[in-house]
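Hello,

Our lab assistant flagged a job as stuck in the queue for most of the afternoon. It eventually completed. Since we weren't sure the result was trustworthy after the delay, we are filing this so someone can double-check. Below is the sequence as submitted and the structure that was eventually returned. Let us know if re-running is recommended.
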Amino acid sequence: MNKSIIRYILGHVLLLTSALMLLPALVGLIYLEREGIAYIIMAAVCLICGFLFTRNKPENTTLYLKEGCISTSLAWIVLSIVGCIPFCITGEIPSFTDALFETISGFTTTGASILSDVEALSHCSLLWRSFTHWIGGMGVLVFLLAIVPLSGGSNINLMRAESPGPSVGKLVPKMKYTARILYIIYFGLTLIQFILLLIGRMPVFDAVCTAFGTAGTGGFGIKNDSIAGYSPYLQWVITIFMLLFGVNFNAYYFILFGNAKKAFKMEEVRCYFIIVAVSVAVITIELFRSAVPFANALRDSSFQVASIITTTGFSTADFNLWSGTSRTILVMLMFVGACAGSTGGGMKVSRFVILFKTVFKELDSYIHPKRIQKLALDGKPIDHDVVRSINVYFITFTVIFVGSLLLVSLEGKDLVTNFTAVAATINNIGPGLELAGPTQNFGHFSILTKYVLMFDMLAGRLELFPLLILFHPAVWKDIHTTHRNWKMRRKENEE
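-- returned structure --
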C-alpha cells in the first residue's frame, strides 16, 4: 500500500480546510464576534499539520482504487473532526459528540441537526454550518483533483470513491479539467441562485447561507422555522434550484457546449422529473382535499418533494401532519434520491432505472428464452460490471440499513421514528417523521444512536464501499506489512 500518497492527500485536505475556515473567521470579524477566533485558531492548526504532511512529496504518486477509497474515507473523517472543533471551542456546541454529529451532517449534506435553537448561534458558526454543505456537495476531493498532481489516470480513483452514482465517467479526457468544469457549473448555479434570492429581498447573509445549503443539497436552515418564514417567491426560487442541483451535471455540460438535445434525452433526467411531477400532483391533491388553498398546496408539495428527492432537507411545512399517502410518498422519495452525478444523495434514480430494466429483461427472458437482449441506458449498452455493482450495492445497503435500525431500536423509540431517522441519515435527507420530523431535532437520541447515524451519514455520502473498506481485515494486514517492510529497510540503511 502506498501510504505516502494517502498522507500527501490528507495533507492537502488539511491545507484546503485551513483556507476554507478563513471565511467564517472573516464573517466573525465583520459582525465583531469573538467566536471567529476559534476558526482562526483551527485554520492555523490545519495549516501547520497540512504543511508537515505535504512537505515531502511521495516518490510514487500513482493512486490505485484501494488507496483512493482509503484516502477518501480518511479525508472525510479528518475533515469532520477538524470541522467540529470550532463549535466546541466557542462553547456553542459543548459536546464533542453533538459537534461531530452536526459537522458530519453538514459535510455529508444530510442536514440533520442536534440544535433546538439554531438562531442562538453566532453568524460565523451559522455560515460555517451552511458552508460545510457547499464544500461537501460536490466533494472536497473533486476540488483537489484540479490541484493535486497525480500520475497518469489515477485521479479517477479519487473521483470514483467520492462521486455519487453507479459509474463515474470523464467529461473531458483529463480528470483535472473534468473537476474544473464541474466546479465552474457548481459555482455558476450557486451564484445565480444567490442573485435571485437578493432580488426577492432576502438579506445578504441569509441569501449566502441558503444558496450554500441549496447548492450542496444540505438543508441546514439559519432560522428555527427553516424556510417557512420567507416569501412565496423565495420559496419557489429555492424549490427550483433544489431540483436543478439534483440533476446530473453531465446534462449541464451538454447544454453549455451546444448539445442540449443530448441532455434532454438522458433517461435518468427524464425519469427524475417524471417522479417529481407525479409526486407533486398526488400530494397537492391530498393537501387540497384537506382544505388547504390550491396555491399553498401546490407550493408546499412542490417544495417538500424537491427537498426530499434531492435530499436537501429544507422545510416550509410540518409534513409530519400530512396524510398517510403523502408521508408514504415522501419516505419513498427518501430512498430514490436525486440523479447520479449531482450533489443529491439517496440511492440515485439511475440505479432504479437500471434495476427496473433488469427486471423487465428477466421477465422477457421467460417469454422469449432464446432472445438475446442487452441492457442499455441513453442508447449505450450497460456493462455487466455496472449491473453487478448495483445488485451488490442494494444488498449492502439493505444489510447496513437493517443493522442500523436494530441498533437504533435499542433506545426504545417508536418504529416510525427509528425507521425514518435511519432512512434520513443513510440517504443524507435530514428530517424524518415523528420524533425525527421537521419540527424536531436529533439531539434527544443517545450517544450510541448518534454514532450509528453518523456512520450512516458517511456511508451514504461515500456510496458505502469506500467507508466499508476501512474495516476490511486485508487493509489492516496490508498496512501492517507495509510498516514492517519500512522498518526493515530503515534498519538495513542504518547498518
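-- support follow-up --
The delay was a queue issue, not a problem with the job. The result is valid. The chain has a mean pLDDT of 86. The two ends are 25 Å apart (CA to CA).
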